[in-house]
Write a structure and sequence with these properties.
By secondary structure, the chain is an alpha/beta fold. It has 20 helices and 11 strands. The strands form 4 sheets. It has a 5-stranded parallel β-sheet, sandwiched between helices. Helix 1 packs parallel to helix 12, helix 6 crosses helix 12 (about 265-280) and helix 17 (about 400-415) runs parallel beside helix 19. The radius of gyration is 29 Å and the shape is globular. The relative contact order is 0.13. The chain binds adenosine-5'-triphosphate (ATP) and magnesium ion. The site of magnesium ion (MG) has 3 residues, from helix 5.
Length: about 475
């Protein structure tokens, strides 16, 4: 049955076949060190996969173990989340806890996390379904293109016929043979399919997607309602159509999308998406330490604690209403992260602490880590600068001595002023490259290979690093 087949596909969407080892390997390509954190997220992901294989009655009792990542600023917490998002085949969203306020205050309410997660899920499922009906949609789109290119006889005055309408005035009788419409259509179809008409311009009627209401409610707790309201309004109002001049190639894209939408059962997509979000959804709660409060106090802290209390039921398992239906949050995996510079995990409200049983610590980065971060990841900083300057025809060579020197200086500045982790490398490198970046377009042919060694680094940076007054401002 088609229906059960679709269910399988949804299951496939939420499942990451990668083993923990493979996930860690993938993360290793972008993030240096932090093995504990990589390991625990990879195990958590694998546990999702394992629980999906369990018999129903057991699976319902297996609740994901949420993770709390602790590490000072700039050591890779958010980076792990970002890479993970690209890696997992499950609905994944990353939110900053600081964005939320207690219900009743101005700001986003916590339930919007789940609404956003379902939205992501819907997008994934819809994409999958679109893929399924792709061929059929393409066929339908071709037919509609033909309708435009070879209009019905009674519509032959249609300006769209410009291209082939002329044929009727006997200029080019070859293009539309006299036998009648179908053979003309066949002829055009052949040319269309062989890609000969891609650049022709036609006029296409498209629905005007502009939603005048967008943004009215954003940022308020009415947001969810705003969404529904918008949908209601746009479903009541007749679709505004607008004529656009587009190439056949562009028109095909638009029409294929329209046709795919017609072929997809949105209700079924919503149902599948809710299930996918419930079973496989992952929420990354960044900056959780910023809503932790030290000791009991008053003022803005009250609202922060309020946010924690609002987060609690969602993490614990509750039902959130979304426009795609109610969503149970029991099996959603939460990964929280925070620097916990001033507040400690124990400053979170106790109930919330208990919901994050797995704690992983990310280590402060040292010189060796910085050296690797500069050079090893797939798009490491040094590689980025090299590629950028390459576009100007300038070749940048970094000697090992320079890398080691930059790493050393980054460490020193972090120790002397504030430890901002790998972000220090960004500020240092930017300063280091300033002259070259500025002069690159004007460099003469024989200057276009720049070798950067420890001397060059010292030249540009040592003074600033030595004076803590200066480095506080510049680096
Ligand atoms: N271990 C690492 N390997 C590679 N790059 C890293 C590593 N740690 C940090 N970076 C780089 O440093 C920058 C900041 O890292 P990230 O955003 O992950 O910090 P964070 O731990 O989330 O800090 P914060 O607590 O301030 O949010 C990013 O550009 C990231 O690529
Ligand atoms: Mg971060």
């Amino acid at each position: 049955m088609a229906r059960t087949k679709k269910k399988d596909i949804t299951a496939e969407l939420g499942l990451n076949e990668q083993t923990p080892r493979e996930i860690v390997e993938e993360l290793d390509k972008h993030i240096v060190g932090q093995n504990d954190a990589k390991r625990s997220v990879s195990i958590a992901l694998r546990n999702r996969w394992r629980s999906r294989k369990l018999p129903d009655e057991m699976r319902d009792d297996v609740i994901p173990k949420n993770i709390l990542m602790i590490g000072s600023t700039g050591v890779g917490k958010t980076e792990i989340a970002r890479r993970l998002a690209k890696l997992v085949k499950a609905p994944f969203i990353k939110v900053e806890a600081t964005k939320f306020t207690e219900v009743g205050y101005v700001g986003r309410d916590v339930e919007s996390i789940i609404r956003d997660l379902v939205q992501t899920s819907v997008r994934m499922v819809r994409q999958q379904r679109t893929e399924e009906v792709k061929e059929k949609a393409a066929e339908n789109a071709t037919e509609r293109l033909l309708d435009i290119l070879v209009p019905e006889p009674k519509r032959s005055t249609n300006p769209l016929g410009k291209l082939f309408g002329n044929a009727e005035s006997a200029d080019e009788p070859k293009q539309v043979p006299a036998e009648g419409k179908t053979s003309g259509r066949d002829f055009v179809k052949k040319r269309l399919l062989s890609g000969k008409l891609e650049d022709e311009v036609i006029e296409l009627e498209v629905a005007d997607h502009a939603k005048p209401m967008v943004g009215m409610f954003s940022g308020s707790s009415l947001e969810g309602m705003g969404d529904n309201l918008q949908d209601m309004i746009s479903s009541v109002m007749p679709k505004r159509m607008r004529k656009r001049k587009v190439t056949v190639a562009a028109a095909r894209k638009i029409l294929e999308q329209e046709e795919a939408e017609k072929l997809i059962d949105m209700e079924e997509v919503a149902e599948a998406a809710v299930e996918l979000a419930e079973r496989s959804g992952i929420v990354f709660l960044d900056e959780i330490d910023k809503v932790a409060v030290k000791g009991s106090s008053s003022g803005p802290d009250v609202s922060r604690e309020g946010v924690q209390r609002d987060i609690l039921p969602i993490v614990e398992g509750s039902t959130v209403m979304t426009k795609y239906g109610p969503v149970k949050t029991d099996y959603i995996l939460f990964i929280a992260a925070g620097a916990f510079h001033t507040a400690k995990p124990s400053d979170l409200i106790p109930e919330l602490q208990g919901r994050f049983p797995i704690r992983v610590e990310l280590k402060s980065l040292r010189k060796e880590d910085f050296e690797k971060i500069l050079t090893e990841p797939q798009n490491a900083l040094i590689k980025q600068y090299q590629a950028l300057l390459e576009t100007e025809g300038v070749q940048l060579v970094f000697e090992d001595s320079a890398i080691s020197r930059i790493a050393r200086l980054a460490c020193d500045v972090n120790d002397d002023t504030e430890d901002i982790g790998a972000r220090r490398l960004h500020t240092l490198l930017e300063k280091l490259m300033e002259d070259i970046s500025f002069n690159a377009p004007d460099m003469k042919e024989d200057e276009r290979k720049v070798i950067i060694d420890d001397k060059y680094v010292d030249d540009k940076l040592a003074e600033i690093v030595k004076s803590s007054d200066l480095s506080q401002f510049i680096l």
